[in-house]
UniProtKB/TrEMBL annotation:
Organism of this sequence: Brevirhabdus pacifica
Protein name (Swiss-Prot/TrEMBL): Cytochrome c family protein
Membrane topology label: Single-pass membrane protein
Gene Ontology CC: one annotated term: plasma membrane
Record InterPro entries: Cyt_c-like_dom, Cyt_c-like_dom_sf, Cyt_c_1A/1B
Main location: membrane
Protein location: Cell membrane
Gene Ontology MF terms: electron transfer activity; heme binding; metal ion binding
Superkingdom of origin organism: Bacteria
Keywords: Cell membrane, Electron transport, Heme, Iron, Membrane, Metal-binding, Transmembrane, Transmembrane helix, Transport
Alphabetized Pfam families for the sequence: Cytochrom_C
Length: 173
């Protein structure tokens, strides 16, 4: 039933499949790899897009006056935005989760929750969680405090950040 001819056929089929795979890989590299190789300088295909907003159109969102947005913020909407934070943070005083509790976080000292181990990078960002510091941190935690343990990617919408900060300002403040 199982003789040397069967074993030879199995090994030959495996070698043939490996050969087809390697040749396919070689052909794909020739077709899809950039001319300069992939040494990090040109490793992807760039799609040219016409500038949608004219000159400096992408920077208009960066120039928003946060104080004005915060003044018009709605804490009720901020409570809904807080649902993204509930997995790691609690609002009760002293009830730490994966992250520290956020009771009275607005204008609280950075790294001041007892019983929570903060990263050194976070303590170096600011002395007090002012609305402006919270805005920068909530926009891009890893960019604002490189080395922070917080794994959240951030809130890109300035109104969401302002609403959240307004809501947190009503909790324990």
């Amino acid at each position: 039933m199982f003789d040397t001819m069967t074993l030879t056929k199995i090994i030959g089929a495996g070698c043939g499949a490996l050969l087809v795979f390697l040749l396919g890989n070689w052909a794909a590299e020739l077709i899809y790899e950039p001319a300069g190789g992939h040494e990090g300088e040109n490793a992807s295909y760039v799609i040219e897009v016409a500038d949608a907003g004219g000159e400096g159109g992408g920077e208009a969102a960066e120039e928003v006056d946060f104080a004005a947005v915060l003044a018009a913020a709605d804490p009720g909407k901020g409570e809904r935005v807080f649902s993204k934070c509930k997995a790691c943070h609690k609002l009760e005083d002293g009830a730490n989760g994966t992250g520290p509790h956020l009771y009275g976080v607005v204008d609280r000292e950075v790294g001041s929750v007892p019983g929570f181990s903060y990263s050194g990078a976070l303590k170096a960002v600011a002395d007090v969680w002012s609305p402006e510091h919270l805005d920068g941190f909530l926009k891009n935690p890893k960019g604002y405090a490189p080395g922070t343990k917080m794994g959240f990617s951030g809130l890109k919408d300035v109104e969401d950040r302002a609403n959240l900060i307004a809501y947190l300002g009503t909790i324990g403040g």
